[in-house]
Amino acid sequence: MPSFPPPPLRIGDLVVDPPILQAPMAGFTNAAFRHIVRQFGGAGLLATEMVNARGFVWLDENDAEHPDRLWGVADEPRPLAVQIWDNDPETMAKVGRRLTEEYKVSVVDINFGCPVRQVTEKAHSGSYLLREPNRMSAIISQLVKACTPTPVTAKIRLGCSRTQINCNEIARVVEEAGAAALTVHGRTAADMFTGNADWDRISEIKAHLKHIPLIGNGDLDSAEKVVAAFKNYNVDGVMIARACLGRPWLFAQAAAALRGEPVPPEPTIAQQRDVMIDHYQLVVDRFGEDKGTVLMRKYACCYAQGKRGARFFRTHVAKVSTAEEFYNVVDEYFPNAEVATT
Known about the structure:
The protein is an alpha/beta fold and 342 residues long. The protein has two domains: 250 residues, TIM Barrel (Alpha-Beta Barrel); 65 residues, CATH 1.10.1200.80. It is built from twelve helices and ten strands. The strands form two sheets. It has an eight-stranded parallel beta sheet. It is globular. It starts with 8 loop residues before the first strand and ends in a 9-residue tail after the last helix.
């Protein structure tokens, strides 16, 4: 088993310390969310939402504004990863070059793990490409050439289904094509987000990599589980995903635990509500009150998750469309107890 506490993670020349990464999540990990995470600290590398490379090229060729998913990227602190997806090597390389030359991103990550049908079956991208290792190799190798010296990484799942697990083979393909790190979500595409992540499978992949680090992802929802991942499995880094959406302080808790320090307590309910309101203001400042309020609905539901009265709050906040309505619902219905009752 690896040493503990774990050393900093190295992705090419980039040092990620602590070796805890924030997962790219479509519809959630925008600049407002990343700002909140940075306020708490603890994340060694943050990431954008995944960006459709083909859509980016179209916007660029038509002199349109670049995607909202790149909001904040040019100016915010580093390190920062941008995740892109498509199945065409030349399109991916073109976008990668722009991200490194114009946006000066720290890492370009390739999404080979998204299981959503719109990305897989309709666009033959994301986890669909796990069945086409040669195309994956071409995408990675061309992107590496276009982005050098900025490191290129890849995120995959265990396979397309439980009867088509090929992560060991794919890991070798990813490394041989020149990627600087591999992140593995411990489910298959067919699993979507059901069941439990298979960390034993993730750990086994390490033996199939010669030089690049392995980052594990799946079901990390507490500082204790992050510590256990490093102690029990052969990974060089971990990536936290859905659990951080309503708990952006989770990274700071995990980082403290890795250092052997006392884990900071959960913020009080009042403090959590204040964080959510700050988050709301950032979104409204960018998108305006109408669009910002609608976008904030899903975040507000995340902040309430797991608390007594969360379902009642979700019912009401899902209908808000103005700032006044949002604040009224928060004042009247935001949960006031830590743990949901059974």
